[in-house]
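Title: Comparing notes on inverse folding

I've been comparing how different people in this forum approach sequence design from structure. To keep things fair, I'm posting one structure and asking everyone to reply with a full sequence. Here's the target:
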């Protein structure tokens, strides 16, 4: 999905790619290679519920270590990769001050911190597939926020997708009520989608003025600070007690958060948004499959029906976000 015509975002990505980067100069890159990269990135992102469970720490602690371990790598990348010169953006005809950009950075970090905490709580309480799929309803949430002027107003196709999103979410809640998962966990998954929608809207503003590497490293640092303070206040900032827990958190921070999101950014520079959005929907399927195979989660017909309805809604929602305002 895209925001204000200035950036390309996906339901599972934690950063936006400048739409201006998708230009003729990238045409030499083989789209099949980019699609393969996005498939691999989606697979990494789909591993997050398993790694959170294996970390052996609370939702707050796993969310903190996820960003804390990724932050040094992202900051090093932002330092080593030269920033591209700023280009005029029709959506932002005037320059904004550093204080405004810093404020947006903090706000994005707060939204992302809330998203991660809610998502990790959902992973702990409900099935891996439900947690990830419901958290990926952010495009639908953004469309609804567009109705009150907080995001770009959705196109007509959005209204065709909205009933499928509602029906799919109801099916997933029904699956939990039938004995597999937790309705409370499903609610946290939806809450994560709300916070993630807010994060993406703010990121869309930031990306008009600063580069992707600086944006992601800066928001990750803010996120780590916010979650760390929150966990300390709760008395919940603990470390794993064994090597398995540390390996799970290292994989969560480095493979999922840093490498996975970076690969999404690279892949989306070489394929159109529609293809990228569809390819990245492999994430909830990977999470569902691993939940069944590794965690022994039992799936029922409601899960299957809910998955189909939500994915269909997301495809329509991301298509609607591509339409000009």
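Reply #1:
Here's my take.
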């Amino acid at each position: 999905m895209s925001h204000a015509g200035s950036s390309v975002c996906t339901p599972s990505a934690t950063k936006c790619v400048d739409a201006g980067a998708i230009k003729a100069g990238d045409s030499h890159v083989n789209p099949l290679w980019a699609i393969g990269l996005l498939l691999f990135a989606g697979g990494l992102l789909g591993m997050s519920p398993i790694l959170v469970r294996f970390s052996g720490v609370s939702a707050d602690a796993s969310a903190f270590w996820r960003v804390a371990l990724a932050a040094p790598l992202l900051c090093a990348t932002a330092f080593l990769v030269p920033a591209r010169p700023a280009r005029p953006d029709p959506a932002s005809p005037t320059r904004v001050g550093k204080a405004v950009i810093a404020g947006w950075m903090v706000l994005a970090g707060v939204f992302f911190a809330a998203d991660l905490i809610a998502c990790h709580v959902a992973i702990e309480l409900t099935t891996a597939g439900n947690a990830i799929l419901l958290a990926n309803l952010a495009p639908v949430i953004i469309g609804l926020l567009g109705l009150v002027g907080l995001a770009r107003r959705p196109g007509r196709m959005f209204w065709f997708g909205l009933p499928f999103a509602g029906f799919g979410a109801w099916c997933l809640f029904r699956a939990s009520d039938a004995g597999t998962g937790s309705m409370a966990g499903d609610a946290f998954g939806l809450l994560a989608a709300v916070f993630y929608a807010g994060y993406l809207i703010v990121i869309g503003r930031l990306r008009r003025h600063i580069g992707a590497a600086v944006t992601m490293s800066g928001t990750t640092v803010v996120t780590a600070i916010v979650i760390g303070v929150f966990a300390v206040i709760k008395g919940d900032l603990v470390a794993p007690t064994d090597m398995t827990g540390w390996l799970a958190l290292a994989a969560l921070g480095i493979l999922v958060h840093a490498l996975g999101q970076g690969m999404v950014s690279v892949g989306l520079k070489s394929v159109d948004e529609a293809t990228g959005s569809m390819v990245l929907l492999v994430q909830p399927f990977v999470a569902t499959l691993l939940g069944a195979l590794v965690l022994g989660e039992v799936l029922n017909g409601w899960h299957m029906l809910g998955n189909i309805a939500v994915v269909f809604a997301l495809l329509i929602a991301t298509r609607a976000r591509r339409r000009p305002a």
